Amino acid sequence: MKLGAFSISLAVKDINASKKFYETLGFTQFAGSLEQNYLIMKNETSIVGLFQGMFENNIITFNPGWDHNAQKIDNFDDVRAIQKHLLKNGIAIENKADESTSGPANLVVIDPDGNTILLDQHV
Length: 123
Hints:
alpha/beta
């Protein structure tokens, strides 16, 4: 299964402090804005999203159809096909993608340890 780019989305308390911390680890701002309370930080192919006040817990994120530079890739598994595979294998879907649509969509599952996983397709 091709899940696309991987990142971790962190629910941070102080986005400025988090930005400084991750810059010390060698990350640079890739996208987002402090004014909108979110930054996407990148170090080579590692991506960390910093989100202040947007969600309660950290989220593991996959972006079907994108590479680690947020560039469209041609060969990927559509989020609706992934959803069908998960349901067929007994995985409960917290937020389902609308299977009557095509293009951008997302779904959310929770792993056995309670970690939220977002599959967020932008293409």
